[in-house]
Amino acid sequence: MIAVINISQLVTLSGPQRPRTGPAMRDLSIIENGVLIVRDEKVSEAGNWDKLAGRIPENAQVVDAGGRIVMPGFVDAHTHPVFGGNRADEFEMRAAGKTYQQIAASGGGINSTVERTRRADEGELMLAGRRYAGWFIRNGTTTIEAKSGYGLTLEDELRLLSVIRRLNDDTDLDYVPTFLGAHAIPLEFEGRTEDYVDLVIHKMIPKVAEERMAEFCDVFCEEGAFTVGQSRRILQAARKAGMKLRVHADQLTKGGGAELAAELRAVTADHLEHTDIEGMSLLRMAGVQPVLLPASVLMLGSKQFPDARSMIDAGLAVVIASDFNPGSSPVPSMPLVLSLASTQMRMTPAESITAATINAAYSINRGDQIGSLEPGKTADFVIHDCSDYRELAYFTGIEHARAVYKSGRQVFQR
Hints:
- It is a single chain.
- The chain contains 16 helices and 15 strands.
- It has an 8-stranded parallel sheet. A 7-stranded mixed sheet has the order 3-2-1-4-13-14-15.
- It is of the alpha/beta class and 414 residues long.
- The chain folds into 2 domains: 2-73 and 372-413, Urease, subunit C, domain 1 (Roll), CATH 2.30.40; 74-363, TIM Barrel (Alpha-Beta Barrel), CATH 3.20.20.140.
- Helices cover 37% and strands 24% of the residues.
C-alpha cells in the first residue's frame, strides 16, 4: 500500500465515464493539497489532506511529493515504436530543403525503414524497443498504442507484432497493439498496388486475427499510399476478423480519410491536418475520436497544424499523441506535444492534458482502466517536478517527471 502526500495539485480527471468534449475538457478535477492512496495496484482513495490524513493506514509506504503535482500517466495513442535503424539522413535532407514527399519518391521514407527493419533480427529490434520504452517512461508516459507497419510482408509484420508483445511483457510500459500492414506499398509491389491490398486482406489480416496479435487495424489512407476504396476494403476485412478500426486520414492532402473513418465508425481518425468543418461534423456524428499529432507537423517543417480549436468547439473528443516514428516524428515526449497543442493548435493546457490522458485512454479502449485517478482504476501516475499543472506545457524542452508509477509500483525516479 502507498500513500502519496504533500501534493500541491492532485490532477484526478475524475468525472463522467466517457470521453470528454467541449467545456468538460477543461475540467481536470484538481484536488489542492492532495493525498493519493493506492492499494493492490489500484487507486483506493484520492482526496484532500484534511479529509484523508486520518485514514492513511499505519502500514502504508508514505511517499512525500514535496509540493509537486501528481497526475495520471500519459497515454500516447499513436506510436510506431518498433523499427530498424533511423532516418537521420532524411532529417538532414529536409533541413536542406527536400520535402517528405520528394524523399519518399526517391526511395526514402517509410520504405527505407522497411528495408532496415527487414534486415534487423528480433534481438536488435528488442534492444532498440527497450531503449525507446525508457524514453517514453522518463517523459511520464505509461501506456502507448503501438503500430506495426515497417515489415510489409506477412512474416515481418507478424515479427513486429511479436516484438510488441514481448516488449509489453518485458518492459514497464504497456503496449496496445495495432496492425498497420497497409502503411505503404512495398517496393516489390510497385505498380501492383491491388496485389498488395489482396495480400493484406487475404493473408495478413486472417493470420494476425488468428494469432490474436492486434486489437486494432490501421490504414494510411492518403495520396501515394492507399485510396479510399482500397482502405475501405482493408478496414472492412479487419472488422470482419474482429479488429477495431483506426485510420491515418487527411495528413498530406484532403483525401477522404476523415469521411471514410466516419462512414465505417472507426474508433479514431488520426492526423487530420487537412480536414474541414464538414469532415469534423461527420466525425462527431459517427462518434470517431480525432487523434492529433502536432509533433509530426513540427518535425516535417510544415505549417499546417490540425484545427483543434474547431474540433473541440464542434464537440469532438480530441486526443493528442506523439506519432513517435523514425521518419516524420522522432519524438517520444508528450510534454513537448502539450506545448505544441497550446502554441500551435490553440488548446488550453487543461484541454491538452485531458486529450493526453482520459480521452486518449478511451481511444484505445482503456477508459475504464486508466487515464484518470479514480477509485478502482489502475494506479498509473506520475509525480511531476512542478507545482502547477500548466507548467507541463509552459516550461518546454525538459523532462518534468520526477517519479513514475505503474500499477502502484515505482518504475522510474530521477
